[in-house]
C-alpha cells in the first residue's frame, strides 16, 4: 500500500499542488535553497534530514521542476549545487504567509524572537506575503532579507537560478 495518494492527475489544483508540496521537507528545502544553501552537505546539516531522505526529496523536486543544478568547483573538483527555479521562486508568497501565520498563531519558544521580512527596495518590514505592506511593490526573492534574531543574522534571498 502506498504511503500517500497520487494526486498528480486530479482536476483540483489544490490537490495537484499538494502532490508536489505536501511533504514538509519540500518547503524547508526551498527555503534553504532560496537562502543560497543549495549544496547537499549544507542542506543535510541545516535541516537535520537523513541523507537518504534528502536525496529522494531533491530528486523528486528536480523532477517536479522546483530545483535545478549548477556546477561549481571545490577542492579542484566540479560539483553541483541546487538552485531554485521560477516554480520554486513562485513559492515565496507562500513561505512569507507561513512565516507571518507562524508569528501570529504559534507560541514562540523561549529565547526566540520575531523574524522580520524586510523588503530591501524600501528598507521596511512587510507584513504581507506578496506585496510590500510599506511601498506596495511585488516581493521577489532577490529583494528580500529575512532577519532571524535567534541566529543573530540576516539572510538575503536569491533569485531563481542564482
What secondary-structure arrangement, pairings included, does this model have?
Elements: H1 13-21, H2 24-34, H3 40-47, H4 51-63, E1 67-74, E2 77-84, H5 86-89, H6 92-105, E3 116-119, E4 124-125, E5 144-148, E6 153-156
Antiparallel strand pairs: 1-2, 3-4, 3-5, 5-6
CATH superfamily of the largest domain: Winged helix-like DNA-binding domain superfamily/Winged helix DNA-binding domain
Total domains: 2
List how many beta strands DSSP finds.
6
Rg (C-alpha, Å): 17 Å
Q: For the largest beta sheet, what order do the strands appear in spatially?
A: 4-3-5-6
Number of helices: 6
What's the overall geometry?
globular
Order of helices and strands: HHHHEEHHEEEE
The fold-level CATH name of the largest domain is Arc Repressor Mutant, subunit A
Distance between the termini: 39 Å
In the CATH scheme, the class of the largest domain would be Mainly Alpha
CATH architecture label name of the largest domain? Orthogonal Bundle
- Oligomeric state of this protein: single chain
Largest sheet descriptor? 4 strands, antiparallel
SS-based class: alpha+beta
Helix content: 25-40%
Beta fraction: 15-25%
Mean pLDDT: 92
Poorly predicted runs are none
Amino acid at each position: 500500500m502506498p504511503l500517500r495518494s497520487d494526486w498528480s492527475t486530479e482536476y483540483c489544483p489544490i490537490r495537484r499542488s499538494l502532490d508536489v508540496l505536501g511533504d514538509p521537507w519540500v518547503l524547508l528545502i526551498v527555503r534553504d535553497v532560496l537562502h543560497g544553501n543549495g549544496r547537499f552537505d549544507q542542506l543535510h546539516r541545516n535541516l537535520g534530514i537523513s541523507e537518504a531522505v534528502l536525496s529522494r526529496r531533491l530528486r523528486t523536486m528536480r523532477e517536479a521542476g522546483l530545483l535545478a543544478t549548477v556546477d561549481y568547483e571545490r577542492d579542484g573538483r566540479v560539483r553541483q549545487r541546487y538552485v531554485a527555479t521560477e516554480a520554486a521562486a513562485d513559492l515565496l508568497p507562500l513561505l512569507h504567509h507561513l512565516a507571518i501565520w507562524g508569528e501570529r498563531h504559534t507560541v514562540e519558544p523561549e529565547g526566540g524572537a520575531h523574524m522580520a521580512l524586510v523588503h530591501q527596495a524600501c528598507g521596511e518590514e512587510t507584513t504581507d506575503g506578496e506585496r510590500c505592506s510599506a511601498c506596495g511593490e511585488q516581493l521577489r526573492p532577490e529583494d528580500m532579507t529575512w532577519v532571524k534574531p535567534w541566529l543573530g543574522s540576516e539572510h538575503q534571498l536569491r533569485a531563481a537560478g542564482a
